[in-house]
């Protein structure tokens, strides 16, 4: 029987709490642990009696983590797992061994209740719970789930009805609770040390304006993590967070981490107008879809500080866009690219080459049409990482690429058998556009520009 604390009754308040970002992946740069920041803010507001501490593996090592746990005497430790692997077919690095090591250190140096969550965990809740054996897990957004779990354990109540909770029942079977309620107004915790570190190393911080994605792209895990119902965060709170970051830390570039920024026109316009009306002078970027967008709306966003758009274009072939179940076609991609060019907004296109349904004919179409897109940067992924609870997972099972869903805990890719994958980079180079494949190394360039205090994504400097 696993040696965890899920069957232990706790008779004292869980006042000393640690939240840990386990991410160590830094390609192309370290990413600010936004989820942990939101959790910290929420718990600090709603459980003001707690003593909350933070640890980040991007700025601390194993020894420092062990010392942090020993000195903290924590009652409760929450560990956030951002990814399970690098989503790079050329490398296919799994992060799970590192998470096992972190869990081992935690078990050795604290008697606290240990809870695991985050996007990576939320995609594989049962498998990772079995691999890591925490006391509890949380699938999906964690603010209310953690508050409910802490309250239940502190009061000696049964926690098994907490939404999103992953736990072992009395027979030792792993259970995953569903979720029916969602949060709509998180706030960003500005940790001075973290903000300084990521501003220096990444040249930006992250912020969120909405959660959930209503689309049904064949491969995407975002609806699995955040749900399909779109929840917009309070626009005044978002702008207030931006003003605080600018005032307290001098941060003047933010990236919105919404799965897609432009999925709620009325809200997006309100947010942009509030940003224009505020005193904050912050440039920003975001992921955009090439549809549900007008030149007028782009102009409004530009006035509010928009400088960089990363289009999730996926393909420049209409046939392939249909295979991927996208809501737009190449005409939309071309139109929005030209709008960005006219408005002076830097834009990049993220593609998937060799995914479901791809042929050399659809690839030829993508390469040929890329020539029409003006001064852009194209980031192609090769193949599709297969995730559970997606249409691509069902296709992979049907085609015998995987025998069961549990195999997906390790990197498994769908790569079309109807293409010549070895020719992709040569064919891309022949277009005259700037293509940055996952096996390209831009780290030296990024470090050089960061040293010169350049902020933002920096890919616009790769266009020539």
Explained architecture:
It is a single chain. By secondary structure, the chain is α/β, with parallel strands linked by helices. It folds into two domains: 16-176, 3-Layer(aba) Sandwich (Rossmann fold), CATH 3.40.50.280; 203-462, TIM Barrel, CATH 3.20.20.70. It has helices at residues 34-46, 62-72, 96-109, 119-123, 125-132, 143-154, 192-202, 222-226, 235-249, 265-277, 295-304, 318-323, 330-343, 360-370, 391-398, 424-429, 443-451, and strands at residues 16-21, 51-56, 76-80, 113-117, 136-138, 165-168, 174-176, 205-207, 210-211, 231-232, 253-256, 283-288, 306-314, 346-353, 377-382, 384-385, 413-414, 434-435. The protein has a seven-stranded mixed sheet with strand order 2-1-3-4-5-6-7, with helices on both faces. Strands 8-11-12-13-14-15-18 form a seven-stranded parallel sheet. Strands 9-10 form a two-stranded antiparallel sheet. Helix 9 runs parallel beside helix 10 (265-277) and helix 11 (295-304) packs across helix 13. The chain is globular, with a radius of gyration of 22 Å.
Features:
TIM Barrel; seven-stranded parallel beta sheet; 464 residues; 2 domains; 17 helices; alpha/beta; Rossmann fold; globular; 18 strands
Which regions are unreliable across 5 or more consecutive residues at pLDDT < 50?
none
Q: Label the CATH architecture of the largest domain.
A: Alpha-Beta Barrel
N- and C-termini, Cα separation: 59 Å
CATH third-level topology of the largest domain: TIM Barrel
What is the CA-atom radius of gyration, in angstroms?
22 Å
Q: Bin the strand percentage.
A: 15-25%
Mean pLDDT: 92
* Number of H/I helices: 17
């Amino acid at each position: 029987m696993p040696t965890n604390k899920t069957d232990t009754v706790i008779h004292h308040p869980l006042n000393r709490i640690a939240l840990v970002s386990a991410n160590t992946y830094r390609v192309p740069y370290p990413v600010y642990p936004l989820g942990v920041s939101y959790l910290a803010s929420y718990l600090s507001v709603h459980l003001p009696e707690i003593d909350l501490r933070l640890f980040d593996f991007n700025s601390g090592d194993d020894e420092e983590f062990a010392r942090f746990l020993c000195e903290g005497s924590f009652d409760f430790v929450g560990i956030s797992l951002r990814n399970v692997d690098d989503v790079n077919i050329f490398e296919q690095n799994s992060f799970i061994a590192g998470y096992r090591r972190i869990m081992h250190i935690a078990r050795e140096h604290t008697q606290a209740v240990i809870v695991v969550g985050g996007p990576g965990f939320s995609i594989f809740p049962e498998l990772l719970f079995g691999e890591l054996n925490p006391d509890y897990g949380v699938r999906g957004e964690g603010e209310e789930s953690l508050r409910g779990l802490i309250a239940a354990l502190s009061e000696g109540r049964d926690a098994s009805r907490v939404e999103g909770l992953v736990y072992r029942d009395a027979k030792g079977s792993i259970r995953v609770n569903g979720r029916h309620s969602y949060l709509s107004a998180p706030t960003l915790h500005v940790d001075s040390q973290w903000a300084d570190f990521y501003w220096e190393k990444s040249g930006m911080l992250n912020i969120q304006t909405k959660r959930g994605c209503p689309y049904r792209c064949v491969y995407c895990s975002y609806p699995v993590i955040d749900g399909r119902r779109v929840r917009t965060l309070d626009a005044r709170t978002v702008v207030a967070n931006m003003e605080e970051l600018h005032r307290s830390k001098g941060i003047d570039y933010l990236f919105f981490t919404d799965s897609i920024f432009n999925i709620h026109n009325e809200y997006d316009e309100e947010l942009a107008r509030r940003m224009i009306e505020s005193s904050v002078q912050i440039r920003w970027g975001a992921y955009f879809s090439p549809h549900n967008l007008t030149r007028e709306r782009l102009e409004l966003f530009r006035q509010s500080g928009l400088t960089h758009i990363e289009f999730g274009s996926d393909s420049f072939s209409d046939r392939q866009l249909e295979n991927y179940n996208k809501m737009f076609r190449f005409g939309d991609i071309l139109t929005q690219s030209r709008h960005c060019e006219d408005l002076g907004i830097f834009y990049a296109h993220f593609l998937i080459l060799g995914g479901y349904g791809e042929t050399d004919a659809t690839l030829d179409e993508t390469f040929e049409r890329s020539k029409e897109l003006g001064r852009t940067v194209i980031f192609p992924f090769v193949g599709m990482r297969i995730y559970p609870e997606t249409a691509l997972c069902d296709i992979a099972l049907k085609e015998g690429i995987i025998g069961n869903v549990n195999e997906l805990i390790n990197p498994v890719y769908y790569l079309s058998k109807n293409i010549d994958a070895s020719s992709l980079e040569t064919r891309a180079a022949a277009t005259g556009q700037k293509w940055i494949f996952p096996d390209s190394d831009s780290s030296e360039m990024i470090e050089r520009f960061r040293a010169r205090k350049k902020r933002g994504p920096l890919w616009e400097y790769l266009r020539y």
